[in-house]
Amino acid sequence: MSAKEAIIINTIINFLINKSLSENFKHMLKPLTDHLLVKPLQKESSKSGLVLPDSEKERPERGEVVAVGEGRILDNGTRLAMSVKVGDKILFRKYTPDEIKEGEETFLILSESDVLAIIN
Hints:
Helices cover 22% and strands 32% of the residues. With 120 residues, it is an alpha+beta fold. β6 and β7 (105-111) form a beta hairpin. It is elongated, with a radius of gyration of 18 Å.
Protein backbone atom coordinates (compact mmCIF):
# COMPACT_ATOMS: atom_id res chain seq x y z
CA MET A 1 0.00 0.00 0.00
CA SER A 2 1.36 3.40 -0.98
CA ALA A 3 1.52 6.37 1.38
CA LYS A 4 -1.18 8.13 -0.66
CA GLU A 5 -3.55 5.14 -0.34
CA ALA A 6 -2.88 4.95 3.42
CA ILE A 7 -3.74 8.65 3.83
CA ILE A 8 -6.99 8.22 1.88
CA ILE A 9 -8.02 5.17 3.92
CA ASN A 10 -7.12 6.93 7.18
CA THR A 11 -9.18 9.98 6.15
CA ILE A 12 -12.20 7.81 5.33
CA ILE A 13 -11.94 5.95 8.66
CA ASN A 14 -11.69 9.24 10.62
CA PHE A 15 -14.72 10.62 8.76
CA LEU A 16 -16.79 7.54 9.57
CA ILE A 17 -15.72 7.58 13.23
CA ASN A 18 -16.58 11.30 13.60
CA LYS A 19 -19.93 10.84 11.86
CA SER A 20 -20.73 7.93 14.18
CA LEU A 21 -19.74 9.99 17.26
CA SER A 22 -21.96 12.91 16.28
CA GLU A 23 -24.90 10.58 15.57
CA ASN A 24 -24.42 8.94 18.99
CA PHE A 25 -24.08 12.36 20.64
CA LYS A 26 -27.51 13.39 19.30
CA HIS A 27 -29.03 10.28 20.85
CA MET A 28 -27.19 10.72 24.18
CA LEU A 29 -28.74 14.13 24.90
CA LYS A 30 -32.43 14.48 25.66
CA PRO A 31 -33.47 18.09 26.22
CA LEU A 32 -35.65 18.74 29.27
CA THR A 33 -39.03 20.48 29.36
CA ASP A 34 -39.31 23.01 26.51
CA HIS A 35 -35.70 22.86 25.31
CA LEU A 36 -34.41 21.87 21.86
CA LEU A 37 -31.13 20.45 20.58
CA VAL A 38 -30.34 22.13 17.26
CA LYS A 39 -27.66 21.61 14.64
CA PRO A 40 -26.84 25.09 13.29
CA LEU A 41 -27.11 25.76 9.56
CA GLN A 42 -24.41 28.27 8.64
CA LYS A 43 -23.85 30.20 5.48
CA GLU A 44 -20.48 29.24 4.05
CA SER A 45 -20.26 32.23 1.71
CA SER A 46 -21.21 35.88 1.50
CA LYS A 47 -23.93 37.33 -0.76
CA SER A 48 -21.31 37.91 -3.44
CA GLY A 49 -20.21 34.26 -3.29
CA LEU A 50 -16.94 34.73 -1.40
CA VAL A 51 -16.10 31.96 1.07
CA LEU A 52 -15.88 33.39 4.58
CA PRO A 53 -13.18 32.37 7.07
CA ASP A 54 -14.36 31.10 10.48
CA SER A 55 -13.37 34.37 12.17
CA GLU A 56 -15.75 36.37 9.94
CA LYS A 57 -18.82 34.16 10.32
CA GLU A 58 -21.62 35.41 12.51
CA ARG A 59 -23.52 33.25 14.96
CA PRO A 60 -26.14 31.22 13.15
CA GLU A 61 -29.81 32.13 13.25
CA ARG A 62 -31.05 28.98 11.53
CA GLY A 63 -30.83 25.35 12.44
CA GLU A 64 -32.28 21.88 12.19
CA VAL A 65 -33.93 20.39 15.27
CA VAL A 66 -32.29 17.07 16.24
CA ALA A 67 -34.00 16.48 19.63
CA VAL A 68 -36.88 18.02 21.60
CA GLY A 69 -37.98 17.93 25.22
CA GLU A 70 -41.42 16.78 26.32
CA GLY A 71 -42.81 20.31 26.71
CA ARG A 72 -43.31 22.89 29.42
CA ILE A 73 -45.40 22.06 32.49
CA LEU A 74 -48.15 24.62 33.09
CA ASP A 75 -49.23 25.94 36.50
CA ASN A 76 -52.21 23.56 36.55
CA GLY A 77 -49.86 20.55 36.11
CA THR A 78 -50.63 19.75 32.48
CA ARG A 79 -47.86 19.55 29.93
CA LEU A 80 -47.92 21.93 26.94
CA ALA A 81 -46.89 19.98 23.82
CA MET A 82 -43.95 21.26 21.75
CA SER A 83 -44.73 23.16 18.53
CA VAL A 84 -41.55 21.98 16.81
CA LYS A 85 -40.45 18.43 16.03
CA VAL A 86 -37.25 16.64 15.09
CA GLY A 87 -36.27 17.49 11.52
CA ASP A 88 -37.87 20.97 11.48
CA LYS A 89 -35.68 23.77 10.16
CA ILE A 90 -36.09 26.80 12.40
CA LEU A 91 -35.22 30.47 12.68
CA PHE A 92 -34.19 31.49 16.22
CA ARG A 93 -32.83 34.41 18.22
CA LYS A 94 -29.14 34.85 17.41
CA TYR A 95 -27.53 35.22 20.84
CA THR A 96 -29.73 33.12 23.14
CA PRO A 97 -28.64 29.49 22.49
CA ASP A 98 -26.02 27.70 24.56
CA GLU A 99 -23.32 26.13 22.40
CA ILE A 100 -22.09 22.55 22.86
CA LYS A 101 -19.18 21.08 20.91
CA GLU A 102 -18.72 17.37 20.29
CA GLY A 103 -15.57 16.74 18.31
CA GLU A 104 -15.84 19.03 15.30
CA GLU A 105 -19.65 19.23 15.46
CA THR A 106 -21.43 22.14 17.11
CA PHE A 107 -24.91 21.86 18.61
CA LEU A 108 -27.10 24.48 20.24
CA ILE A 109 -29.54 24.13 23.12
CA LEU A 110 -32.32 26.67 23.25
CA SER A 111 -35.77 27.13 24.67
CA GLU A 112 -38.83 26.80 22.45
CA SER A 113 -39.67 30.43 23.28
CA ASP A 114 -36.46 31.47 21.44
CA VAL A 115 -37.75 29.95 18.18
CA LEU A 116 -39.10 32.68 15.92
CA ALA A 117 -40.39 30.56 13.03
CA ILE A 118 -40.39 27.15 11.39
CA ILE A 119 -38.93 27.33 7.87
CA ASN A 120 -40.99 25.48 5.24
